[in-house]
Amino acid sequence: MATVVRENIGLLHDKLTVKVSKDDYYPSFDKKLKEYSKTANIPGFRKGMVPAGMIRKMYGNSIFTDEILKAVEKELYNYLNTEKPEIFGQPLPLTNDMRSMDINNPTDYEFGFEIGLKPDYSLADLSKAKATLHKVNATDAMVEEEVGRMQVKGGKMTEPTTIDNEENVINVLFKESDADGNETEGGVVKENSVILKYLTAAVQKKFKGKKVGDTVVVQLHKAFDEDKLAMMLEDLGFEKNDADASKKYFKLEIVKIGLVEKRELEEGFFKEIYPGKDIKTADELRAAIKEEIRHYWDGQSRNQLQDQLYHYLIDETKMEFPAEFLKRWLQTGGEQAKTAELAEAEFPAFSNQLKWTLISDKLIKENKLEVSNEDLREYMKAEVMRYFGSMNMDGDTSWIETYIDRMMKDEKQVDSSYRRLITDKLFNWIEGQVKAKEKEVTAEELAAMQHHHEH
What we know:
Elements: E1 3-10, E2 13-20, H1 22-39, H2 52-83, E3 87-93, E4 109-117, E5 132-135, H3 140-153, E6 156-158, E7 169-177, E8 189-195, H4 201-207, E9 215-219, H5 220-223, H6 226-235, H7 243-246, E10 249-261, H8 267-273, H9 282-316, H10 323-332, H11 340-366, H12 373-388, H13 399-407, H14 411-432, E11 437-440, H15 443-449
Parallel strand pairs: 5-11
Antiparallel strand pairs: 1-2, 2-4, 3-4, 6-10, 7-8, 7-10, 9-10
C-alpha cells in the first residue's frame, strides 16, 4: 500500500517521501499492456493478434515507468488534498533515479518531493501608520501654461522674415568653427532646430533681427543652459557630458524662421478641446482646465499615499520564507529554466511580491472585500464610455450593453478588470484605517516622490 512520509529539512521547508508497492501500480500496468495488445498496429500481425511478449518487449518499459509515476502522483495529491498543508506553488521533485525501475523485478519504489510552506504572521497595525497626503494646488500659473500649450497645439505655423519673438522656431545649420566663424575642416556640420527662448539671454540678443541666410557664432556651453546643452551635444553627435565638446564654437546659419500663430480663444476652439462641454467663454475654459488639473493631481496624491501604505505594510509585517525552496522554484517553476545566479538576483523582488500577495490576500479575505458581476459591468461600461467619449455617438448607447456582454465572456478582460477593482477596494479600505496628515507641496515635489510601484 502506498504511503507518504513528511519530514522537515529547513525553515518552512519539508520533504515528502512517496512510497509505492507493486500492488499500487502493477494491476494498472498489466491492464494497460493488454489494452495495447488489442489496439497496436504492427506490420505482419492482425489487429488484436500481436503476441503479448512482443508488446511487452516493445512498449513494456515505458508503460511500466508511466504507471509507477501515475501511482506516485496520485498518492502525492491525495495526501495534499487530505492534509491540506499551506504550500507555495507545486511540490518540486527531488533527484530520483529512474534507472532503478526494472520491469522484470517489480518492487517498492520511493520518490522524494520538497514543499515550501507559507509562514504564520501577524499584519502590521495600520492604526500606527504615519502617512502624509501630499496635496498639490491647481494654480492659475498651471492653468495659463496649459491654455498656452493648447493655443500652440491648435495654432498654425507662419514664416516671418525676421527673428523678433522668443517663440520663434529657427532651423539652423550648425558648422563647427573657430571663435571668428572660420569653419573647421572635417568638423561637425548638422542641421537642427531650436526655439529662441531655449537659448541663453545673451545669445537670444544676437539672433534678434536676423534673417534667413544670416549667421551667428556661438560657443555651445554659453549658448545653452545645462539641461538644454546635454541634449544639443547628443544631437550633434557628442556625449552629453563631454566638457571639451561643450567648449567648441559653431557658426549657425539661419535656414528657416518659423512662428506658431496661437489659436484665438473663441467658442469654436473650445468645442474642439471639450466637445462634450458647452464652454462659451475663456473663463469657463480656464475653470474646466483647473478642474482637470486638480483631478489629476488628487489622483497622483492618492497614488503616493497608497505607495506609503504599501511600504508600511511590507516593511512592518514580519514574515519568514522558505528561501532555499523558493530559489529552486524560481529556477525550475517558470516557462524557462533559470540559473542559480539569476534566481538569487531576482529573489529579493520576488519575495517582496510574494509578501504583498500574502498580505493583500489576507486583508481581502478577513474584510470580506468582493467584486460583484455588477461592479465588473459598471467598470467596463465606464472604460468603454471613456474610450468612446470623444466621439459623437448621437445619444444612442444601446449597443454598449451588448458590447459589455462580449467583454464579460473574455477571461483575460474579466481577470484584468477584477484585479483593478479589488486592488482599488483594498486600498480604499486601507486608507480608511489610517489618519493621514495633509501637507501642501508643489507639483514638482510630488512628482519626485512617486515610486511607481505595481501593487
